[in-house]
Amino acid sequence: MKHFFKALLSLSTIALLHSCAEKQETENIILVKNPLKIDRSFETVEVDTRKLNLNIDDSLQYFQILNLKTKDTLTSQFVDEDGDGTIDLLLFQPPMESLSEKKFKVIKTATLRKKDTINRCFSRFVPERTDDYAWENNKVAFRTYGPTARKMVEDNIKGGTLSSGIDAWLKKVEYPIIDKWYEKTVTGKGSYHEDTGEGLDNYHVGASRGVGGTALKKDSTYLSNTNFDSWKTITNGPIRTSFVLTYKAVDSSGQKFSEEKHISLDYGSNLSKFKILVDKVDTLSVGVTLHENQGETTTSKKEGWVSYWEPHEGSELGTGIVAPGNTLLGFDKYVTSRKDLSNLYAHLKTRNNEVVYYAGFSWKESGEFTTKEAWENYLTSFSEKINSPLSVEVIAEK
């Protein structure tokens, strides 16, 4: 009997060790699938970190994404999206061939991959130039204007700006330029209005919608907010920059129109993503300025985009808006003699007090999209991808 219990204990121990070994060998795998018959790159995969069971500490820069087949590591970024001190999202951009699927896992390395720490996607509040908020990636740069710039206009002080429009900074280099351009302008050592090889700001916004500014249609006119009132940077990094701008309500015929804009820009994209939170608004209008109305407008309700291709300071420029799903309700080429108020509008349906769209541009001098047709093909492809996104699943494998 004594030998029997010893044997039983031994078997139990072996079973327990085997069970522990099984648990240790089980790991969370990130399965990514491309449902389209096209190769895809520079599309961001978002993974909820709670599903990965990571022991995340203060050395996040040492975590890497490993392609299980090729054993290559990919650039990645962790994001605390809600600002509660806990990491919410893991971001990376896997190249995906047509109708392919790939497996990845998170590993912790002993050495830091330097390219993962570079803020290729960057945004910040700019108090030294009144109070802009500016953002950029390797393709494009933007800015918009804050409350000090508004008050300067109200107080008749030179240098103010009264606008919630989105300004385009026409860069033609892949490295960051925001800090450099502001510094040379503020210090008087140069001006971002002059092209010294990197590009320049010669895009006029004024009171227009610029590249993706919002408005509320009232009868035959459009109501828009002025400058943002507060800002909050969420993240900067190699994959994404994101931030939040809030706008006080403006009142028109008893209807108040307030906004909270969640804006992000990912690496490799010409379009910023806008998530606009509104209250008691069924349809929000989003516009691109027509300037002197010398360009060509194109719209596609089926594919959910609007485009404006125009001559610009001796070159050419394409601007556009892309809306996902069936949220694009219609268009309006609104032309008026009032300065800066001619815009091509896309009317977007709100869902649960929220509107999502993408807006951006391409400058011919950057060498990427040099014709109207190439720019519109990009918008069509962008629309197809956001409506058939890469699927992401966290699975447990041994």
TrEMBL record:
InterPro entries the record matches: DUF4861 (IPR032342)
Name of the molecule in the record: DUF4861 family protein
